[in-house]
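tool_call predict_complex ligand=flavin-adenine dinucleotide
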Amino acid sequence: MKSRLNIAVIGAGASGMTAAITASKYGADVTLYEKNDRVGKKILATGNGKCNLSNMKLSVDQYYCKEKEKLIDLFSVFSTQDTFSFFNSMGLMIKDKNGYLYPYSEQASSVLDILRMELDRSGVRTVTGVKIVDAVYQAQKKSFQLTDMEGKTYFYQKVIIACGSPASLKNGEGMTGYEIARKFGHKIHKLVPGLVQLRSDEKFIKALSGVRCQAGVQLIINGEIQAGEIGEVQFTEYGVSGIPIFQFSRLAAYALEERKQVSVVIDFFPKKEEKEFLSINRLRYDSMMDKSVEDYLTGTLNKKINMVMLKQAGLKPHMKAQEAGWKKIWELMRKCRSFVIHISSVNPIENAQVCAGGVDFKQVDDGLQSKLVKNLYFAGEILDVDGKCGGYNLQWAWTSGYVAGMNAAGFSTKEKVKG
Ligand SMILES: Cc1cc2nc3c(=O)[nH]c(=O)nc-3n(C[C@H](O)[C@H](O)[C@H](O)COP(=O)(O)OP(=O)(O)OC[C@H]3O[C@@H](n4cnc5c(N)ncnc54)[C@H](O)[C@@H]3O)c2cc1C
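tool_result ok
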């Protein structure tokens, strides 16, 4: 009888568990190594504990990746619909909240428990508390030799590296996957925090701390607009946060690494047409000109924002609107649509939800096998692919895990690519 292919998956996160389950279902003998004492820890923190596991609006535009064509092909092999089927078949009910997919329970632990049960059911050998620190290819044995932190060695015909990234981890953890990949000759693109808060040294920042508001935000790098988003912006003690900020934070991180000038420009009235905005303010001025400028702003924005705006315009809060004059008031209101915050840095990787950069995506084929070392595969965030907020990073973990798992087990996903 032909013996089963033996495969090691390093890392039991979202992508590693998917890869292990898939490879096992396709007949391989799979061992899944996890350095923590339990699998899938990061999943529990996703989506504020609710796990936003995918998105109905899956598109490569939601990703930063240097080879979009390959990404299109990979998503045509395993898309949002496949995520539905994958989880439904394991017994997980899914909820669609305006296109954002969550487990029906809205508990990330349900997703993890379902995956754990499936690991058992599909016969994957799961080994926790074992950190793989080295991997080399032994040509004589036609196998990879893995070494753990105690120096014990293990041999496998194929290896899938799914070690994730240092995002959200402390003390420089999460780097071994890259070190192993580098030893095999892979290029690692500069790692920076992605989906992270931006920091500013502006004096007014502290005064805005705690404010949350809907706003339009543009990212400006060396004087040019690089990205724009609308959503809830959150001001913190040290800077700005919230989904619109997260969405382009990796661009800011790379620009700051390159010592470029980075700022964000905030429009506190993102949905107002300029003409309508002008006429509303003219009417308000006409009826409130006998009030103080502070009172004039009452009923517009959060009081903390109003006070910062008045200060920037050089207006005393108790000065009458009439005394300031329409021109100055209109200038003040327009400033609320282009409020500039200079960015000094991004929060460190331990605060980030994902890590941008990683193993060169061009150095893996469309089955996620290394082009440099046969029978070595990659899955998940370790690759130089990162998505925006909205379930896209987990979708990448499921997709890449499935593709790596199936190909490693000796079944090509190529014919599944829908042209
Ligand atoms: C707070 C937070 C919230 C998030 N929310 C969402 C969300 O709602 N939706 C979404 O799509 N994405 C979200 N993400 C991102 C998403 O969780 C990740 O992109 C995804 O989990 C990456 O999966 P992965 O398998 O590549 O890596 P990981 O999940 O990081 O798994 C890698 C595993 O490998 C193990 N490992 C590493 N090195 C070794 C080694 N040498 N030996 C053995 N084991 C090793 C690690 O311990 C880890 O368990 C969030 C992330 C964070 C931090």
